[in-house]
Amino acid sequence: MDEIEIGDHFTMMIKNGITHISVKPDTTVELEMVQKVVQHQREIQKGSPYLVLLDVSKAYGVTREAREYTSSEAVEGLQIAMAMLTQSLPIRLLANFFIKFDNPPAPTKMFNDYDLAISWLESYR
């Protein structure tokens, strides 16, 4: 599948059975943005759960409302497991907070290496 643009802030594609979602540079992820991504994810995945690689390497931040939405019933059934990818310390701290306290609906882990993230996701096939 070719990469698609989702608004001005995200790209998405399915590659080797993994949904790749990337946040564009300097984006502060807000609730409305996440809702749009989830809508596209439902359409592209045709209602089936997928492994998800979320690249937040270039994100600037994430609002509390966006974090809460991504761990709500609204996203249940979309993910088998999710690997989050970043080398940014502030984003790693936010992501680890999300994983620990917001209780995402699927197994979720933070990575700073793409290959390790993919290997971890593959373990859920």
From TrEMBL:
<protein>
    <recommendedName>
        <fullName>DUF7793 domain-containing protein</fullName>
    </recommendedName>
</protein>
<dbReference type="Pfam" id="PF25056">
    <property type="entry name" value="DUF7793"/>
</dbReference>
<dbReference type="InterPro" id="IPR056695">
    <property type="entry name" value="DUF7793"/>
</dbReference>
<feature type="domain" description="DUF7793">
    <location>
        <begin position="12"/>
        <end position="125"/>
    </location>
</feature>
